[in-house]
Amino acid sequence: MELTIALSIGVLFGSGIWLILRPRSFQVITGLLLLSYAVNLFIFITGRLSVNKPPLIVQGEVVDPSLYADPLPQALVLTAIVIGFATTALYLVVLLGSRGLTGTDHVDGKERDSEE
Amino acid sequence: MMYLNPHLIMLPILLPLIAGALMVLINERHHRLKFLINLFSTAVMLLTAIQLLMQAESGLWPADMAVYLAANWSAPFGIVLVADRLAAIMLLLTATLGTATLVFSYSRWSKTGVHFHTLFQLLLMGINGAILTADLFNLFVFFEVMLAASYGLLLHGYNISRIRAGMQYIVVNLVASLFFLIGIALVYAATGTLNFADLALKIATLDSTDRFILQTGAAILAVAFLTKSAMWPLGFWLPVTYSAACAPVAAMLVLLTKIGVYVILRLWWLLFSEHAGASAGFGGSVLLCGGLLTLAFGAVGLLASQEPRRIASFSAVISSGTLLALIGYGDATLLSSALFYLISSTLAVAAFIMLTELTDRIYTPAASVLALSMEAFAVEEDTQQSAGVVIPAAMAFLGLAFAACALIMAGLPPLSGFVAKFSILHGLLDSGAAHAPLWVRWIILTLLLVAGLSAIIALMRFGVRTFWTLYNSAPLRLHPTEALPILAILLLGVSMVFTAGPLFNLLSRASTDLQQTPAYIERVLQHPVVTTQEGL
User: Fewest 10 Å CB contacts: which of B256, B266, B365, B491?
Assistant: First the structure.
């Protein structure tokens, strides 16, 4: 399980980094999305991987913590997803504004005259 | 004696949130009402900051620190807010600058688009929260609030150059936020906590594997903060962004880089102090070298700048570089000078940015072309016309204000910039050999002086072209709300010279607080929850 998760985070990171270095703003925003998935998974596994363990305990009960999942990374991931989603949506608006005003989807707002 | 309300710490965060939310509901037609709500909220923030500072000074708080347990969860489990002298000083700086830029925006920028006032309040909320929080993830949330508001404000007065700058600024900051999250995850994986005090306690006891993970996490976190504080080579977004934003927004953005510096100052001195065991002083040399490179980059950039906004941008880069180098240098006695410099340079650069908005009105394209060709071909002046030119009051004000800004930014006597720079140089020459070899000190010293020199050259060139080569300039119109904030900030710069003694005492107490790591840990972790008998 560790290997699968590690590989998938690695692939997501790799694809995301490659995409945010591309010149088209759509590629950049896709890259940002992939990167934020990778980061969210990464935060999630800092609570260690486990199967079938509840994150919540009943108040007043004395329990063995090793039978429970760490609830904090799950809460952090929820917050990070919401914030990441909102800021990416905001970037999407700027992207559309840039496309409309400059007439190109290049991240610099103008085409490179030599190559493209 | 003063009434000690424990909930006062929440006010700088809750008030702008409520005011900002309230103003979304009000139609843009009621511009004056929105402005008044905004001004009221910012003014109350200013009073709160003064009150918090007075309480921190009064000795009523144990260890001169106020701890607020949000939702009444005890320290390592719930979210904690901590106000000490340094936090109160930063809140005061934020509220002062906020009030000034807000009044400045009244006559023009706050009317040009929608939701300026809401975004402005949310920006203040993010800044205040980032100053007060004592929890790493909460810091992330407040940083995002601050950044999201700054994205909106940067695009305020929507045009192509702002969109282009916004595309870069937003992507850079989104990627920096991802770094922030990775850093938080690694720190949590290593220590199992995100509370500053708890972290500082646990860092000393980590085994070598966990210490390696923690240091990796801290380095990645530092990338996020250093991007915000524009350290070379992470700060290339800054000149573009500052040049594109409208004047009041750019003035507030100057403060945002200082928040990055503040977070580094607070976290680095707390987590990697001499109490941190094997991790003590981790990354100090990186901060020092990075700061010096930033200083050099800023000095070179300043020499190459012609436009006023780029001059302001590179001045902000220089002041970030100076501060980072001084933090990384690791001498506690220099911290109070660094803080004095932080306040003085932030105010001066912000005032200069607002001033450039006004000088742009006289600096028409035709006049600038003429000024350039004058230099190249030395056109004969019509001497008969120049006899007895009447200087209008507005021009005289602009010229004097520019001179004052330039003196502070370049660090020349008699204004506060000189006091700051002099005390830094004095502290560097005075500091014990334990901190760094002599040649390091001389490199910092030389770079500081070179940066000052290039600031003088760049500012003089701009001043001469703007104020001394005027032809056919239309009569300049200044609104009182535009002149007043600049005047107020510059008067603060003057008064900082006269009150330099008490101010330095205050700042040295603030920097001593920073070094009291065990006291901080004890104060935060031992803070009792409120029981129902005491009432809320």
Answer: B365
